[in-house]
Specification:
2 copies of one chain form a homodimer. The first copy, chain A, is mostly helical. The first copy, chain A, is built from 7 helices and 3 strands. A 3-stranded antiparallel beta sheet of chain A has the order 1-3-2. At the A-B interface, helix 1, helix 2, helix 3, helix 4 and helix 5 of A face helix 1, helix 2, helix 3, helix 4 and helix 5 of B. The structure holds a DNA duplex.
Chain lengths: 119, 119
Amino acid sequence: MALNDVEICEIHEVHADKVKMVKNKLPEEDEMYDLAELFKVFGDSTRIKILFVLFETDICVCDLAACLNMTQSAISHQLKVLKVSKLVKSRREGKSVIYSLADDHVRTIIGQGREHIEE
Amino acid sequence: MALNDVEICEIHEVHADKVKMVKNKLPEEDEMYDLAELFKVFGDSTRIKILFVLFETDICVCDLAACLNMTQSAISHQLKVLKVSKLVKSRREGKSVIYSLADDHVRTIIGQGREHIEE
DNA sequence: TTATCATATGAGCAGATGTTCATATGTTAA
DNA sequence: TTAACATATGAACATCTGCTCATATGATAA
């Protein structure tokens, strides 16, 4: 029998009614999973730095790498992650590819994060 | 000589002036790093689920584990991460330890995340 | 005290993640 | 077309992360 813990707990003390009530109010598994995936994207300092640069200006990969003192390859890999998550979009201009913020949730989310830290 | 990429780029095309301007506007390295660390905490589905439970009610470790069908140990480890990041606080009540949300930035941050996803 | 319940924690392991390196793709100019 | 620049990408590797298992700590009741 799997998940013995749950069984054992119920015998003793777990408030089965409370647990059931809370379970019903939780969002879909998928939604919570996707949310975690989104925050995972914010959870890397290279990507955060990229976003801060994009707060200031649209910019090409090469300049971005220079801003952060990192290799073009490393930046490019991370830009892809940001793009798949729709936090960033890109357009081609001649030989360069210019990246920019996809929408304003990014600013809000990061803003709230900063507020939390300032305490 | 290290970081050849930057050097090479400058010879050719990088907009040194633009790069310098952006660099000046960026927050402190530490702040960006801390921000990434904060979001890293949100970037795991177990922790996200814990937070959603805490949106509904204060709850003990045992009930929390039952809600998520996970072991007490796994939950306890993650609660520690959440506590160190000040997203969650705890109080003892008899044999149990009751966890609750530390403040309301958590709701706001997660709310913005959800908005971003709904698109 | 001792027994039991509730939670916390350390070690170990498997899987995920970010960077580097080499190279491929795509664009422009000659 | 070819050469040079700009970006993207795959593989490899080292590090990080989250879970499990065993066990320690803490609290209560008998």
